[in-house]
Amino acid sequence: MKPYYRLLFLGCLCCALLLAALPSYAAADPAGSWVPTRPDTDANTRKGFEHFYELDYDKAIHDFEAAQAAHPDDPFAVNHTLAAVTFKELSRIGALDTEAYAGDTFMNKKAAVPLDPAVRDRIRQLTAQSLALSQARLDKNPDDVNALYARGATRALESTYIGLGEKAWFSALRMAVTSRHDSERVLELDPTYVDAKVGIGTDLYIVGSLSWPAKVAASVVGFSGNKQKGLDYLRQAAGSKHVEVATDAKIMLALFLRREQKYAEVLQLVNSMANEYPRNFIMAAEYAHLLNAAGHGQEAIAAYRKVLAGCRSNAYNQCRLAIPAFGLGEALRGQQEFAAAAEAYELAAASANDDPSLQQRATLSAGEMYDVLQKRDSALEKYKAVIAENSTSNSADLARHYLKQAYKNP
Q: What is the pTM of this model?
């Protein structure tokens, strides 16, 4: 995939990740014929979102299904269930690693485990159901902003699943474009519809960040960009009184601020979300990642150790121990605490059975630390293990090099 398509898809994907939670604010139908199911009008939906943002997907699905049963003709209610089912599956296969989305490594990263065919079938069924409900309303009123937004959200979720799950990037991109068009139409009809500003702001920022040739390519598939306007849209939405809109906007704003290396603002933003959702492992780990990226090495070490302790004490609804362990190794390496770094990498490798790529990187890094510590025999053992794990990877290429010449810390 060409570089500009990778960036374009990242923009579309960001939209999908945002819309997955289907924000709560929605305009009232002019005719008063329907009110979308949302947290401020439905107790099950409210509880569902609380569980969703704490990564407790089973409870979220249970609550959203209850709301869906009570509102069977509402595409919003179906989309809530679809979002929880989709993200539970993406989490299960290891597709929600925040470190990967700081760059483009998610494009080529293989899933830790295969997709579940039964879940795939359910996602397709929910997608078709929601699209049919939205279209039925649009057949009656083509300018129904709630139905347009619901359809766009469904398409965004479908784009996310087939992109991150099935790795069908071009199909995902095409679906994301149609989602963007629905959101743009919503804003044309109602400029105060905050939900749509989140998704469009995301795309505006991404396309506005591209080179001129890439922007031309983006215009061909229907995207325009304005970096500052995109950030403005996201900041507006982040200040919304509606929890889902604000949270989704903050997630995207944090991603972009990190890419811009505006660490002071993003650290404050992510820390506030980590405090708001204390059982969300991803938020806690991301805060530690950001501290390290911002150059706050000792604070990052403390944050990683806090996350590890939380994993061990079941403080989070779900936890992948290898992620904070590897991050701790990186932070300790940066502080030249090489023996402790080797220990952290060893823990990451031992805990990453569900992620062969991370396991191999951790094993290689442990070997590098042993070389720095002049424990050549231990280093050689790790390099041989890396090659045995997967002899065709970049890590294996480095390991073969280090078998001949010891690693030296830069």
A: 0.80
